[in-house]
Write a structure and sequence with these properties.
Belongs to the V-ATPase 116 kDa subunit family. One of its GO terms (molecular function) is proton-transporting ATPase activity, rotational mechanism. This protein is of the alpha+beta class. The strands form 4 sheets. Strands 1, 2, 9, 10 and 11 form a 5-stranded antiparallel beta sheet that branches. A 4-stranded antiparallel beta sheet has the order 4-7-3-8. It has a two-stranded antiparallel sheet with strand order 5-6. The longest helix has about 55 residues. The protein is extended and about 125 Å long. About 10% of the residues have low confidence.
């Protein structure tokens, strides 16, 4: 048996890559180029040898600070280009690589130039806005002044005979009386202030004026005919022109302060019409000159931004890479001579040759007289986990890693999940009509893969695009399971030939209630379409899907246990094989494996035995005769044997392993045998997170015994609960089928029964929306999450530790835009 097992492959595709801890001793003059070349290769994960130092205490802190400042300037240029609405595509011609110092000087010059142009443009825009507001106020306020003057000269009243002779009365008389006086405004003491204010502040502004002057003012307003740009936000703002008539110096002071508080701009408007026209002409002339100046300044600024924009992408990439290089150099230590940098890191074993070649090339290119020393170190801590994936397997690996990163060289569940995950999803979602809809969505994402991969996507779209191959496989398996269930939007079709059932006689008109008779061989593939609508449809489908769920669940849990055997064999833990794997296989298959066997025998023989009765009385009365529930000869003694094996397996899981570990520990530390400390027999039972260098700590037998007790109880109870958990395959499949049937019969067919095109159209729209949002979105998400739980808990719980950490190499390809 051992020879046979030794000949089995080592499951290289199922396990993480073998990792090696290496040390680099790099001369200072070639350090930068070596790290740059290693970043381009992307197969070495550096360890931080300066973890006890703050970022400001590290060797290359100033270079990192300079790169951060250049990143800020580049982000400033990008914001300015976006704000100006420019589209600067990078030039494809080859440009020579620029040195970091030269780039720093160029960026400083460009920033100074852009800031100066922005300052000048802002001042000109402010002046332009003031002149534009002045022009609008002159045009609008003139109407108020002309109408007021005309009203005053055309009105002859008795109040003219002595009302305004007293100067004291001027302050207390009403504004209406003062306005009616035929004398000019400035002779009567009536004054005015004209200006312009934002529309959203107008109501509060008017209320404040009324309260401050105690009602002794006349407020006129009119909307401006054009919007004005706000220099601070570059947004067009709607404003209102106002003219406030008042009397007295004190009121004037209050009104001016309120205008300043509300941000209202006041402009002097002469009462003389001739002066108004002359002033308007001057304002229009200056506006024309300023427009030309602003246009010229904008063109010059856009030219400067375009010159930067053509090289912006390349510069941002250069700065990101330089910052990453110096961040990595900060992880290295100087040796005692201060002439070499010492670094350590993890790399895949297959990459040692590539790394060595890259370091030799870096030494040659930097004209260094001393080469880089590259040698392998003895590892004490557990190496990182690294799986080589492609576009198809990467999404499934991410699903597994969301639960936990595999321990170093532990069996990888993602390999099996590529098939089992979409298949279990399809068991719950099976409808080949809905599967075709998912397939169209997946094909759309695949057809636009190249374009979408280069775009900035939203969070939801990015998630869909990342899982495009998962959606593709889920769609294909859904079509397959839908063909087995024979459901196309809940409608069965005779795809693989005619039904095996027919009416009881030729006059049968109510076949669905009277019943059908079988007259030929079974339907060749999937469920016979004649079951649809029959009296026994629901009991038949319930029985089929429930038993199928149990079979699939037991098969996947057995796969998990088999993987635990290969894990124990790979790590050399014979204790786990003898005292965990074997009793767990016996316990699970003595009970639920036997149930699966009964299901298959019942399907093959067509027996009417009650499996519920068989399994219940297997525990309650194992010696009783089975009677009509007997499926095969020798079933009763077999059940007694299996029950005894299940009872024996429980203490087999619980007691031997803790005592065996105690015996191994005592033999090692009492000198009876001499073994290498830290072998897998003990290592596998050490709690995650403990270092291998501390294996000489005191052996705590009670802690290990309690841990084994919890593990045994968890497996025994979990065997029952996990088997029951797989019944969700049956429940969700039935719910999906019934929901689809309700929408088809109670919405689409009901609407189609009316001889009205509008009702039919409404029914079709409601059916389409219900299918899209409930069956294709909510049900897809529900089946996805339930399949996720079955893999994380029921399948991976049998063998997966998930206490490793990811291999994160220093690679320029992995640097995101946010790292700049």
């Amino acid at each position: 048996m051992d020879d046979f097992l030794d000949k089995l492959p080592q499951m290289d595709l199922m396990r993480s890559e073998k990792m090696t801890l290496v040390q680099l001793i790099i001369p200072v003059e070639s350090a930068h180029r070596c790290v740059t070349y290693l970043g381009e290769l992307g197969l070495l994960q550096f360890r931080d040898l300066n973890a006890d130092k703050s970022p400001f205490q590290r060797t290359f802190a100033n270079q990192v600070k300079r790169c951060g400042e250049m990143s800020r300037k580049l982000r400033f240029f990008k914001d300015q280009i976006d704000k100006a609405g420019l589209r600067c595509s990078p030039r494809h011609e080859l440009e020579p690589d620029i040195e970091l110092g030269d780039l720093e000087r160029q960026l400083a010059d460009h920033e100074h130039e852009v800031l100066e142009m922005n300052s000048n443009s802002e001042k000109l825009r402010q002046t332009y806005n003031e002149l534009l507001e002045f022009k609008i106020v002159l045009q609008k306020a003139n109407g108020f002044l002309v109408s007021s003057s005309a009203h005053a000269t055309g009105d002859e009243t008795e109040l003219h005979e002595g009302t305004y002779s007293n100067n004291g009365f001027i302050e207390t008389s009403s504004l209406l009386e003062q306005e009616m006086r035929p004398e000019p405004l400035n002779q009567s003491g009536l004054r005015f202030i004209s200006g312009i204010i934002n529309k959203d502040k107008l109501l509060r502004f008017e209320r404040m004026l009324f309260r401050a002057t105690r009602g002794n003012m006349l407020f006129n307003q009119t909307p401006s005919d054009e919007e004005i740009m706000d220099p601070s936000t570059s947004e067009m703002v709607e404003k209102i022109v106002f003219v406030v008539f008042f009397s007295g110096e004190q009121a004037r002071t209050k009104i001016l302060k309120i205008c300043e508080a509300f941000g209202a701009n006041c402009y002097p408007v002469p009462e003389d019409t001739t002066k108004q026209r002359q002033l308007t002409r001057e304002v229009l002339s200056r506006l024309s000159d300023l427009e030309a100046t602003l246009d010229a300044g904008t063109r010059h600024r856009n030219d400067a931004l375009n010159a930067v924009g053509y090289r912006l992408t390349k510069w941002m990439t250069t700065v990101r890479r330089e910052k990453a290089v110096y961040d990595t150099l900060n992880m290295l230590n100087f040796d005692v001579t201060k002439k070499c940098l010492v670094g350590e890191g993890w790399c895949p074993t297959f990459a040692k040759t590539q790394i060595h070649e890259v370091l030799q090339r870096a030494t040659f290119d930097s004209n260094s007289q001393v080469g880089v020393i590259f040698h392998v170190m003895q590892a004490v801590e557990s190496p990182p986990t690294y799986f080589r994936t492609n576009k198809l397997t990467n999404a499934f690996q991410e699903i597994i890693d969301a639960y936990g990163v595999a321990r170093y060289q532990e069996a990888n569940p993602a390999v099996y999940s590529v098939v089992t995950y979409p298949f279990l999803f399809a068991v719950m979602f099976g409808d080949w009509g809905h599967g075709l809809c998912l397939l169209l969505g997946a094909l759309y994402l695949l057809a636009r893969e190249r374009k979408l991969s280069s775009q900035k996507l939203g969070s939801f779209m990015e998630m869909l695009f990342g899982g495009r191959y998962v959606i593709l496989l889920m769609a294909l398996f859904s079509i397959y399971c839908g063909l087995i269930y024979n459901e196309f939007f809940s409608v069965p079709f005779h795809i693989f030939g005619g039904s095996a059932y027919k009416c009881r006689d030729t006059t049968c008109s109510d076949a669905y209630t009277v019943g059908l008779v079988k007259y030929r061989d079974p339907y060749p593939f999937g469920v016979d379409p004649s079951w649809r609508g029959s009296r026994s449809e629901l009991p038949y489908l319930n029985s089929l899907k429930m038993k199928m769920s149990i079979l699939l669940g037991i098969a996947q849990m057995n796969l998990g246990l088999i993987l635990s055997f290969f894990n124990a064999r790979f790590f050399g833990s014979s204790l786990d094989i003898r005292y965990q794997f074997i009793p767990q296989m016996i316990f699970l298959n003595s009970l639920f494996g036997y149930l699966s066997l009964l299901i298959i025998i019942k399907w093959c023989t067509g027996s009417q035995a009650d499996l519920y009765h068989v399994m219940i009385y297997m525990f309650l009365s194992p010696t009783e005769e089975l009677g009509e529930n007997e499926l095969f000869w020798g079933q009763r003694p077999l059940q007694i044997l299996l029950l005894l094996m299940a009872f024996i397996a429980v203490p087999w899981m619980l007691f031997p392993k803790p005592f065996a570990l105690r015996k191994i520990h005592m033999e090692r530390f009492q000198g009876r045998t001499y073994g290498v400390l830290g072998t897998s027999e003990v290592d596998l039972d050490v709690e995650p997170g403990s270092a291998r260098g501390h294996q000489e700590e005191e052996f705590n037998f009670s802690e290990i015994f309690v841990h084994q007790l919890i593990h045994s109880i968890e497996f025994v109870l979990g065997s029952v609960s996990n088997t029951a958990s797989y019944l969700r395959l049956w429940a969700l499949s039935l719910a999906h089928s019934e929901l689809s049937t309700v929408f088809y019969e109670k919405v689409l067919l009901l609407a189609w029964g009316y001889d009205n095109i509008l009702i039919r159209l409404i029914g079709l729209v409601v059916f389409a929306f219900a299918t899209a949002f409930i069956l294709l979105m909510m049900e897809t998400l529900s089946a996805f999450l339930h399949a996720l739980r079955l893999h994380w808990v029921e399948f991976m719980g049998k063998f997966f530790h998930g206490d490793g950490y990811k291999f994160k190499p220093f690679s320029f390809a992995l640097i995101s835009d946010d790292d700049a």
